[in-house]
Amino acid sequence: MSRAELDDRVRSAIEAVVEPELGRSLADLGLVREVRTGPLGGVRVEVALTSRGYPMAAELRTAVTAAAESVTGVRKVSLDFTVLSEAERERVAGSVRSVPEGVSPARAVYAVASGKGGVGKSSVAANLAVAWATEGKRVGLIDADVWGYSVPQLFGIHRAPTAMNQRMLPVPAHGVGLMSLGFFVAENEPVVWRGPMLHKALSQFVTDVAWDDLDVLVLDLPPGTGDVTLSVLELLPDAALLAVTTPQPAARSVASRVGAMARSVSMPVAGVIENMTELVCADCSARTPVFGSGGGTQLAAELGCPLVGQIPLDIQLREAGDAGVPVVLSHPDSPSARALRQTAAAVRPVRRSLLGRSLSLTPVTR
Ligand SMILES: Nc1ncnc2c1ncn2[C@@H]1O[C@H](COP(=O)(O)OP(=O)(O)OP(=O)(O)O)[C@@H](O)[C@H]1O
């Protein structure tokens, strides 16, 4: 094969790599500056980064190097990064889109809620998002749990999002685009904002973020039935509720208030997820219902929706959350990861009834 042919093959392989922040190929974004192969299978590659402090350089280096090395005849890859000029950056930024106000950024929107804190709502939301992403869906996750945000920790991300064309880019991690108030505050700093400011922040997370044609948008709601939940419903009227509870009667009865709130604003309930269903003994397979049993089934019956999943108590789930890699990725064969994947497969979109909704239609009289 001639050097020119090898150059072409390496260029095609590299150009197919997807730039993680914008979710588009390097060819699309025009970021591959140079590919030059030497006589002994050495390749010099130059790729332009979209900004000086580009946060995904390590990931991009790994992906570009692997793509070049996958071409037969390539022995050694040397990759240099440069940065787009202002004019080039403006061209790329011009293609950053966001959804117009009032239009849903995703085909399905699920608001994950619980009656009280600590039942595992955020862990479930994070793992469902990753499970859908591993199925090939384009998934976004908004951490609407503004006072108790845990998405940065669960995904191991502690940096602010990149801004482009006056839009924030979702922070990519483990295949999911993320947005969280936690990305904007120093670690452990309390959030003391009140209702209207939080509503504004959430509305920016929906309309000022470049969510690009998502299949699924997951919202991790704060526990309870407060203002933030109502704000979310106002901003994303097509959201369907996924109610998380433990099997305990007390947890179920608080969760049922969330269901009642959803009904009062005509929000459909896509399902109930029972978390911490039982502890499975690693050595003897004995199952212990630490938090009692029946809560999920009863809540589903009360809300008139399916029980879409039962997730066991699993130390690997807790460890994975602490390590910043959701359990469906870090321990895919663990009991909780299996149950979470099954749950993701069982959730079906539900449409909100048009009854009682004001439609933006004007009747025509002849
Ligand atoms: N099935 C499970 N097995 C083991 N540990 C779990 C399970 N589900 C959640 N946990 C652990 O329980 C703790 C609380 O979980 P998580 O933060 O997801 O709950 P939450 O309902 O979102 O809480 P909050 O509303 O306070 O944010 C975490 O340490 C998490 O790792």
UniProtKB/TrEMBL annotation:
What's a GO biological-process term for it?
A: iron-sulfur cluster assembly
tRNA processing as a keyword?
no
What keywords tag this UniProt record?
A: ATP-binding, Hydrolase, Iron, Iron-sulfur, Metal-binding, Nucleotide-binding
InterPro entries hit by this protein: FSCA_dom_sf, MIP18-like, Mrp-like_CS, Mrp/NBP35_ATP-bd, NUBPL-like, P-loop_NTPase, YlxH/NBP35
Q: Name one Pfam family in it.
A: FeS_assembly_P
Top-level taxon of the source organism: Bacteria
What positions does the domain MIP18 family-like occupy?
8-78
Molecular function as annotated in GO: 4 iron, 4 sulfur cluster binding; ATP binding; ATP hydrolysis activity; ATP-dependent FeS chaperone activity; metal ion binding
Iron: is it a keyword of this entry?
yes
Enumerate the residues binding ATP: G115, K116, G117, G118, V119, G120, K121, S122
Which proteins does it associate with, and in what oligomeric form? Homodimer.
This chain's function reads: Binds and transfers iron-sulfur (Fe-S) clusters to target apoproteins. Can hydrolyze ATP.
Protein family according to the UniProt entry:
In the C-terminal section; belongs to the Mrp/NBP35 ATP-binding proteins family.
Its protein name is Iron-sulfur cluster carrier protein
| Organism annotation | Microlunatus kandeliicorticis
